[in-house]
Amino acid sequence: MAQNAIPASVLFCCDHNAIRSPIAEGMMKKFYGRAAYVQSAGVKNDMEVDGFAIAVCDEIGIRIENHRSRSFEEMKDWGDDLGGFDLIVALSPASQRQALELTRIFHLDVEYWPIMDPTGLAEGREAKLAAYRQTRDQIRARMIERFGPPTVDG
């Protein structure tokens, strides 16, 4: 697939589907509209979407507060087959391993974007927000590098 080509369907994944992958899912939908079917999942679903992730997305007009975390297992149970995605973007080493394991029988692209996990990196609200902004901005930079400038105004 050519760099900058937007695939028909993209799955973002990370460890818990609570910070990095919901940010990426929300950002992809905001930047590229309906150009692609976009979902996200985690290796585990043991956390709700993170409040700091919601806050730093709100700052740039992306709403993720209604996101419901889900695992790869739940995706399968709900009929969202990983083999149906054109591209899987893993945002953590554990999710990359799981995506490769679950898709070894399919011919599809799994890309790894090393995105920092902001949890536990800072004390105090302002320092935590700064860490989460850094994660958000890393995702934005990788996304624009991969898919080109946003095609949807806003």
UniProtKB/TrEMBL annotation:
The yes or no answer to whether the keyword Oxidoreductase is present is no
Q: SUPFAM superfamilies from the entry?
A: Phosphotyrosine protein phosphatases I
The keyword Translocase is assigned to this record: no
Q: Where is the Phosphotyrosine protein phosphatase I domain?
A: 8-149
The protein's matches in Pfam families, at most eight in alphabetical order, are given as: LMWPc (PF01451)
Under SMART domains, the record lists: LMWPc
Keywords in alphabetical order, please: Arsenical resistance
Which PANTHER family did the record assign? ARSENATE REDUCTASE (PTHR43428:SF1)
Q: What is this protein called?
A: Low molecular weight phosphatase family protein
| Lineage, top ranks | Bacteria, Pseudomonadati, Pseudomonadota, Alphaproteobacteria, Rhodobacterales
